[in-house]
Design brief:
The complex is a heterodimer. Chain A is built from two helices and three strands, in the order βαβαβ. By secondary structure, chain A is of the alpha+beta class. Chain B is globular, with a radius of gyration of 15 Å. Classes of the chains: A alpha+beta, B alpha/beta.
Chain lengths: 80, 220
């Protein structure tokens, strides 16, 4: 059993209104000096058996097909 | 003439869409997200709402509903498909239309009577309008900001595939785009709601009826 993490982030050129809202809230709580916030998603996948290159390729396919929308988001895959 | 209206778990505007279909003079046929056949319909409307609770991304789960594989196939064969609001998001997630819809730039849910200009009246869903016609229909969404990369936007403009543009941008949509079509002109995605503007009794007028009248004309 292994855990694979897929991080999904809005592409840099795509406006991230949620990140902006969080950034706007931070100074109101007294946290200064944060110049940008980008909000993304983290998926943790429990994978049966050993993690092979083939399995990782499958996870990348999942990320491309479902977990992210390549039009607006980038993703990265790593094994925990 | 049969126009199917799909209900996904979380669809809201399927009843109004079916009513608009009947108001325009066609028979409306209810399609369920789990259906594997389209019950012999001549066209399909994907209505607004929050299919699958907007989980993951708007339209991301609905795209894989059994009925959607039938619709993608039928759209490829030229069947008219109109996606309204959440339906537009589903069409983008299905790659039937380019681009994506993200959260409104002002971060608020907008609900208003919205003016649009019909930019392309050669699609299956807009042929009843004059090109350049200015219409007012309802806009109501939280994630209606249309985005695509610059080359895609340039291609859409060059090929005349921007179907409708906002007059006064309500949500940050790039190039004021409110709706786009595919290359063949049978698939149209539109963020505002024509089905809520088909009668004078409620809503901002009857400007929305043309979308449903158009498809009837295209099917004759």
């Amino acid at each position: 059993m292994a855990r694979v993490v897929v991080d999904v982030m809005p592409k840099p050129e795509i406006l991230d209104p949620q990140g902006k809202a969080v950034q706007g809230a931070l100074p109101r709580l007294g946290f200064d000096g944060v110049t940008e916030v980008r909000q993304g998603k983290r998926f943790e996948l429990e994978i049966e058996g050993e993690i092979t290159d083939e399995r990782l390729a499958q996870v990348r396919e999942m990320a491309e097909k479902l977990l992210s929308n390549p039009v607006i988001e980038d993703f990265s895959v790593r094994v925990l | 003439m049969k126009v199917g209206v799909v209900t996904f778990p979380g669809s809201l505007d399927d009843v109004d869409a079916a009513r608009a279909v009947r108001h325009a003079g066609a028979e409306s046929v209810s399609l369920w997200h789990g259906d594997h056949d389209l019950k012999g319909v001549d066209a399909v409307v994907l209505p607004g709402g929050f299919s699958y609770g907007d989980y993951l991304r708007c339209g991301a789960i609905a795209r894989f509903a059994p009925v959607m594989s039938e619709i993608v196939d039928a759209a490829g064969r030229g069947m008219p498909v109109l996606g309204i609001c959440n339906g537009f998001q589903i069409l983008c997630e299905s790659h039937l239309l380019p681009g994506a819809l993200i959260r409104n730039d002002h971060r608020k849910f907008g609900c208003l009577d919205q003016q649009l200009r019909i930019e392309n009246n050669r699609t299956a869903w807009t042929s009843s309008y004059d090109e350049g016609a200015e219409i007012t229909i309802v806009l109501k969404n939280g994630e209606g900001s249309y985005v695509a990369d610059e080359p895609t936007l340039d291609r859409l403009e060059a090929e005349g595939r921007v179907v409708a543009r906002y007059l006064g941008n309500p949500n940050g949509s790039l190039r004021d785009i409110a709706g786009v079509t595919n290359e063949a002109g049978n698939v149209v995605g539109l963020m505002p709601h024509p089905e809520h503007a088909i009668e004078d009794l409620c809503g901002p007028g009857t400007d929305g009826l043309g979308f449903f009248a158009s498809v009837l004309k295209s099917l004759v």
